[in-house]
Amino acid sequence: MHPFWNTIVKVFPTWLAPNLITFSGFLLVVFNFLLMAYFDPDFYASAPGHKHVPDWVWIVVGILNFVAYTLDGVDGKQARRTNSSTPLGELFDHGLDSWSCVYFVVTVYSIFGRGSTG
């Protein structure tokens, strides 16, 4: 992915803060979680006999996950490009990555469905 991210980072203006890129990616992951929680609040959608999540929701969630992952890969490259790398920025990035793992896993849980055993 690094060649792709090296190309994408050139699209961002140099005045754009890397932490803003980090936070934007995190917000996309949270939005995905909220979107799936709205359409599948019990995580039964993939279980037999339950209401299914609309196809467009899966497409949007997939695209936004890709964009969030791309933003997560580009933020550090933007920091090095603009000479604004800091230990606090790295902590911010890894901290939000940790929270993203929680939201991402719960979002993906809808794919498998809880089933009768929970």
From TrEMBL:
Say where the protein is mainly found: membrane
One Pfam family this chain carries? CDP-OH_P_transf
Location in the cell: Membrane
- The reply on keyword Cell inner membrane is no
Q: In which pathway does it act?
A: Phospholipid metabolism
Say which domain of life the source belongs to.
Eukaryota
Question: Which keywords describe this protein according to UniProt?
Answer: Lipid biosynthesis, Lipid metabolism, Membrane, Phospholipid biosynthesis, Phospholipid metabolism, Transferase, Transmembrane, Transmembrane helix
Alphabetically, which GO biological process terms does the record hold?
phosphatidylethanolamine biosynthetic process
Mention one GO molecular function. Answer: ethanolaminephosphotransferase activity
What is the protein's name according to its record?
A: SELENOI isoform 1
